Amino acid sequence: MLSRTASSLYWLGRYVERADFIARLVEATVRLDVLSPRPAGEAAWASALAVTETDEAFAASNETLTQGHVARFLTLDGSHPGSIVRCLDMARNNARAVRTALTREAWTAINRAWLIFHSRSSPGGAAATLGLVDAVKTEARGFEGAIHRMLRNQTTWFIRLGQAVERADNTARLLDVKYHLLLPEGEQVGGIVDRDQWTTILQTVSAVTAYRWLYSEGLRPANVIDLLIARAEMPRSLAASVEEAVEILNLLAKRTGLHGEADRMARLRQTRLAKTRSGEVIAAGLHQYLQAFIAENDLLHMAIGRQFKFI
C-alpha cells in the first residue's frame, strides 16, 4: 500500500472519531448548562473550549461566552480545526482520496454526515443543537459499523488505528473536563451539581449502563475514573484504546513487515497502563496523569507517521 493511501485512511479514522467526540462534548455541555437542575453556565462552555484547545481561537473571534456562540463555534465554524464541520470536511477529503478502497456504506455515512451542515448557518437553540450533534453521532456510528463489515485488511486496519489513537486522546480530554469545569460558588464536592457533572461524562461516552453493571455502590468519582482509565472491557476507556492500538500494529506488522518504534512505544504504554491503579492516579494528580498521557499519545502518533512514512 502506498504511504499516502495509508495516511489518508489513518486520518480518515481520526477525523471521523474527532467529529464524533466534539459532538458528544457539545451534547454534554448543553446538558450541563441548559438541562441540569442547576446550570453550569459560562464555566461549562469555557471547559469545552479548553478541552478542545480552541479557547484562544474563540477569544480571537471576540464573541461572548454563551451557549449559542460556543455551540456554533464548535459545530459550524470552519475557520479552525476544532469544529465538527471542519473535521467532517477533512474526513470527506481523505475518503475521496481512497474512495475505491471503501464500501458504499462507509462512503455514504461520511457523505451524509458532511451534508448535515450543508447551507446551515446556526445550530439553533438547545433542542436543535442536541438534534444536530445526535445526527452526527448517528452517522459516525454508521461509518464505524460499515468499517467493521469490510474486509479485514490494511484498509480497515489503518482506519481503526487512527480511530484508536484519536479515541485515546479524546477520552483523556473528556475525563480532564472535571479539572477545567469548576463547581459554582457555594456548591460542594459530592453535591448535586458535582454528581451531575460526573453523570454527564458517563453519558457522553455511553457508559451509564456499563457503570451500573461494574460498580454496585452508586456514583463515585473514583469509580468513573477507574472505568474510563483502567477497564479494558469499556470500549472508550484508555485501556481499551491502548490495547486496540497494539493489536492493530501487530496485524500491520505481520502483513507489511514494517515493525519499529511505534510498536515498541505502544507495547510499553500497554504494559505500563496494565499496572496502573486508579487510586494511585487520583492520589498523584489526575490532571497531571491525563496531560502526560495526551502528550505520550501524540508521540505515538508521530512514531506511526515515521514508521509508515506518512511524514
UniProtKB/TrEMBL annotation:
InterPro entries, A to Z: ATP-dep_Glu-Cys_Ligase-2 (IPR051680), DUF403 (IPR007296)
Domain DUF403: 1-308
Annotated protein name in UniProt: Alpha-E domain-containing protein
Organism: Sphingomonas oligophenolica
